[in-house]
Amino acid sequence: MAAIELDGVTKQFGDVTAVSDLDLTVPEGEVFGFLGPNGAGKSTTINMLLDFVRPTAGEVRVLGLDAKRESVAVRRRTGVLPEGYDVYHRLTGRKHVEFAMRSKEVDGDVDAILERVGIADAADRKAGGYSKGMRQRLTLGMALVGDPDLLVLDEPSSGLDPGGAREMREIVRAEADRGATVFFSSHVLGQVESVCDRVGIMREGELVAEDSIEGLRDAVEGGETLVITVDAASEENLDAVRALDGVTDATTDGGTVTVTCDPDAKTAVIGALEDAGVSVKDFQTEETSLEDLFIAYTEGEVSA
Ligand SMILES: Nc1ncnc2c1ncn2[C@@H]1O[C@H](COP(=O)(O)OP(=O)(O)OP(=O)(O)O)[C@@H](O)[C@H]1O
């Protein structure tokens, strides 16, 4: 069964189309990264999963339930870390987690949760005095209450230091290993790359890519960068390289030649350089980063 299923979903705010005819399926147990530039429609989509916002058209199903008619059941089985959640200043961290347990009508070990998110020492301090990162950790702890079947995390690493971001990734992976589905929106692409099974990229309300990061790389022309160490190379030497099929770009500083190309063009690139009289000493390949893929998909170089 799919954990999340959107079918032809559109959301209009007056004249603004926040989400346009969106089809998206996330299978159970997957860690799905939901990406896109500011204003692309991510939060609106997340809010429709939780029935905080109602679609103008289309169907939203979460955990096999109708997001609109069965929203109470959806929320009971879902842990949410909303973007910019404001803690209750006068309540302690412990009280927050107890509150989350009462709302979901579940029992649990409050200390174990606070320990897991790294704020056990501050359990009995008022959350108003917590730092930004501590508040974020507390909100994540509240989301974990009751071992939810679905975790929806909107910018979860916001405010976290590098150690906190790593712990958050470990928690996400552990939750997926337990069988939970994690739907994860973030602008921190390194974070997404290291934790997500698949990603979806939104642009102006539409999903412009949906694949594993490997799959996105394959779909983007010039999915690899070849860095070749040579004795000496000139601009003219590169003409033969640039003329090859699958080569997007080639530059040189004299001692290094850098070529963006499809993975299967590598051998031809080395051959063309040698034919041009350039002596190749060494070469290595660098995969296109998720950041470059993101730019390619959201700034118009690639379309799905
Ligand atoms: N309640 C609202 N009323 C009017 N317009 C809205 C409302 N919520 C969102 N929008 C508009 O819908 C579009 C999508 O916004 P949304 O918040 O979903 O984007 P996002 O991808 O989450 O962006 P960000 O990365 O900045 O959080 C934007 O143009 C936004 O201004």
UniProtKB/TrEMBL annotation:
CDD domains: ABC_DR_subfamily_A (cd03230). Coiled coil: none annotated. It comes from Haloplanus vescus. The keyword Lipid biosynthesis does not apply. Gene3D superfamilies: P-loop containing nucleotide triphosphate hydrolases. One of its GO terms (molecular function) is ATP hydrolysis activity. Pfam families: ABC_tran, DrrA1-3_C. This is ABC-2 type transport system ATP-binding protein.
